[in-house]
Write the structure tokens for this entry.
Amino acid sequence: MSRVLIIGAGGVAAVTIKKCARLPEHFDEIYLASRTVSKCEALQAEVGADRVKAVYAVDADNAEEVEALINKVKPDLLINLALPYQDLPIMDACLATGTDYLDTANYEPKDEAKFEYSWQWAYQDKFKDKGIMALLGSGFDPGVTNVYTAYAAKHYFDEIHYLDIVDCNGGDHGQAFATNFNPEINIREITQRGRFWEDGQWKETDPLSVREDLDYQNIGVRASYLMFHEELESIVKHFPSLKRARFWMTFGDAYLNHLKVLEGIGMTSIEPIDFQGQKIVPLEFLKAVLPNPGSLAEGYTGMTCIGTYITGVKDGKEKTIFIYNNCDHAACFEEVGAQAVSYTTGVPAMIGAALMLNGTWKGAGVWNMEQFDPDPFMDMLNQHGLPWDVLECEQSPFKR
Ligand SMILES: NC(=O)c1ccc[n+]([C@@H]2O[C@H](COP(=O)([O-])OP(=O)(O)OC[C@H]3O[C@@H](n4cnc5c(N)ncnc54)[C@H](O)[C@@H]3O)[C@@H](O)[C@H]2O)c1
Ligand SMILES: N[C@@H](CCCCN[C@@H](CCC(=O)O)C(=O)O)C(=O)O
């Protein structure tokens, strides 16, 4: 029997819960908790009380509260789909109770827009000694992109040398400006300085200053900008043969113009300001004004294309492949009432959890996705709504 406790009841969690609920062979009992219990109740009503057994309010910034909840529910696995700020308190609660842990985004401190694995990797010995497992970044990127890299290294190359992860949302939600997942986390991510790995060191660029126009399968040519994304950090660690590793995300002109204005007037700042006698953080206020990402789903058209270009050597010859998925916003809405960015994150969280629970991916300690055999995960992507394809490219599409 397997019992999971999911923390978080936002856009991503809604997809994971619905997918888990359909798979009683992997998830016998599902429990749900979040800061706002009414969101959990709404999801429980949608999915059915036979599948989501009970819901709870929890403040996951508080490790002791999470620990008390774990002691009540006694899950085999805790799936963290709250925000990156809660990763460490939840990991502390898992350590205290001897519970396995999974998340989709690496820890970042609330008062500093900096995301890196050092904080979570620091739990390696503690998790190992306790005999429990943490699986980090089981979303799409990070997540599936790490698994694509491991799959390419296993089946297509003797050694991999160049990696370019590309993330295109070619969809149209009809809003002037909106983010597809938590606006605070998303805007903190894309306004950071760019960073990529080359010749054994990290190199920095000004935010969104390096552009390539790339042709995305079933979407077309889109302006793509170099950014830092967390999976680069673990992938270069686990594939030391990489000479260069970069991440690119597409943005339209309208999106970038809005972002520029919001940044220019200080609305993306995380420094608190005084407003009518109280402290407010401009970015938190902006989040309250922007559409809830879940609300974009109805009427959203077009698709995403996220994938990994890899160049390396096989039998002495250099070659490039592209492994990718297209995900259609409208099809996701029809299936689970969500848009494709929530879907592409929520499904891999379910798959990572299923592989942990049935022991296919197991081991004490803190793990990144590319450290396990990619094949069972790739099979489940095909079975559960995120089919992938591999293209052999004549040459790399990047000019630089
Ligand atoms: N790996 C990927 O591909 C990828 C892509 C998109 C999003 N993500 C990650 O997925 C996670 C969820 O994103 P989302 O769009 O669903 O966000 P969301 O804002 O819609 O949902 C977050 C949920 O966490 C809850 N929460 C926030 N603070 C809490 C606290 N202190 N205690 C308990 N619950 C709390 C909120 O109430 C909400 O239900 C984020 O960590 C995000 O960074 C990963
Ligand atoms: N998987 C991504 C999701 C973000 C998609 C970003 N693209 C922007 C582009 C919007 C536009 O140009 O209109 C988006 O918000 O969809 C991640 O890991 O961060």
User: Anything to note?
Assistant: Residues 340-357 form the longest helix (18 residues). The first strand starts at residue 3 and ends at 7. The mean pLDDT is 96. The pocket of nicotinamide-adenine-dinucleotide (ligand 1) is lined by residues 7-13, 34-36, 39, 58-61, 81-84, 86, 104-105, 137, 139-143, 181-182, 185, 293, 345 (CB under 6 Å).
